[in-house]
Specification:
This protein is α/β, with parallel strands linked by helices. The chain contains 11 helices and 14 strands. Strand 11 and strand 12 form a beta hairpin. Helix 4 (about 80-85) runs parallel beside helix 5.
């Protein structure tokens, strides 16, 4: 394998800057190209990050230094870029959601399998230290039986946010609202911790925003395959916006995390390290977590995720968030939408 792996970014909106900064801080990697359908965006990205800017996808994918493509376009446009990249044997890292439905996500997974390239979904929260400690405690059986798992995404987005892009708040390109766009990170963590969901029942509505097709508020109850229950709450109408919160409650222990902070860590089998964990992680969130400002996040999660992907390439080992894993949160949200529309329970898998 090449000593230096070349990255290219498709879709040069706000989140592309996170990709670029993460790539440029990684050893053995370089940012070689960016692609956007607007010439001014391609030129600006190229000037800012010292790479090549393209507006033609065929020319972008033909760049001889390009090995890995990250996709940061609006969610409903992921499929087109992903299929083209996979066809040219480029490895793929795709922003959340991997696509806006399970079926469209599966098309990407199949294309990567057929062309022998690796695929990873972008859920940076899985690479924050606090969630990884929770996952380790779950794997060690410290929670006993998980009886409840809750995800709360009580964020705020102004009307100006939705008006700033024609794609925002549309089913075709956003794929959904408070759940699919904002809440998906917490929902992914919840299912990563608690396991597969068996059925959901949900409500959704648009309560405070205008000129959007999708929900700005939703709630759902769910049953996990292991028998435990859960609740999802998502909104972009809660001023001033609060950090995303995930609660895992078990018969022998419970943990509550808010973004990168641990606000509750208590187990029946108290260990020597538990007091230090409570002390060290109580206020460890250094940013706004995107609760009110979508750019008030760090790129350290992206960097760790990208580094994990590069390591999987170099060692020929499985990626940490493969296509099926990255699709689980999409499927849960899609099921909630179906339930809210039909007024009935929806069973998974879809």
């Amino acid at each position: 394998m090449k000593k230096t792996l070349g990255f290219g970014v498709i879709g040069l909106g706000n989140i592309s800057e996170m990709h670029a900064k993460a790539i440029m801080e990684m050893d053995g990697c370089s940012l070689v190209a960016g692609l956007d359908n607007r010439q001014e965006s391609a030129d600006r990205f190229a000037r800012t990050f010292g790479c090549r800017g393209y507006t033609d996808i065929d020319a972008f994918l033909a760049d001889e230094e390009l090995d890995i493509v990250t996709i940061a376009t609006p969610s409903g446009l992921h499929l087109e870029g992903a299929l083209a990249a996979a066809k040219t044997k480029k490895h793929l890292i795709i922003e959340k959601p991997i696509e806006i439905t399970k079926a469209r996500s599966q098309q990407i997974i199949d294309a990567c399998t057929e062309n022998g390239v690796k695929l990873m979904g972008i859920f940076p929260s899985r690479f924050h230290e606090a969630p990884r400690m929770v996952k380790k405690a779950i794997d060690e059986g410290r929670f006993g039986r998980i009886v409840m798992a809750d995800a709360q995404i009580k964020w705020f987005r102004s009307q100006a946010y939705y008006d700033s892009g024609a794609w925002r708040g549309t089913w075709e390109l956003d794929g959904g609202g408070a759940l699919m766009n904002q809440g998906i990170h917490a929902i992914d963590l919840m299912q990563w911790f608690a396991g597969d969901v068996e059925e959901v029942f949900g409500f959704s509505d648009t309560l405070t925003h205008e000129r959007i097709e999708v929900e700005d508020t939703a709630v759902a109850v769910l049953r996990f395959k292991h028998g435990g229950l859960g609740v999802i709450e998502g909104t972009t109408s809660a001023y001033p916006g609060f950090l995303k919160r995930v609660e895992i409650l078990g018969s022998k222990g419970s943990v509550v995390i808010e973004e990168e902070s641990i606000v509750k860590w208590q187990f029946e089998d108290e260990r020597e390290e538990d007091a230090k964990i409570r002390e060290s992680f109580l206020g460890s969130t250094a940013t706004g977590g995107g609760a009110a400002d979508p750019m008030a996040i760090g790129f350290h999660g992206h960097k760790r995720l990208f580094e994990s992907f590069v390591n999987s390439l170099r060692t020929n080992t499985p990626v940490e968030i493969d296509g099926p894993s990255a699709t689980k949160a999409v499927e849960i949200i899609e099921a909630i939408y179906k339930s809210a529309k039909s007024g009935k329970r929806v069973h998974l898998p879809l």
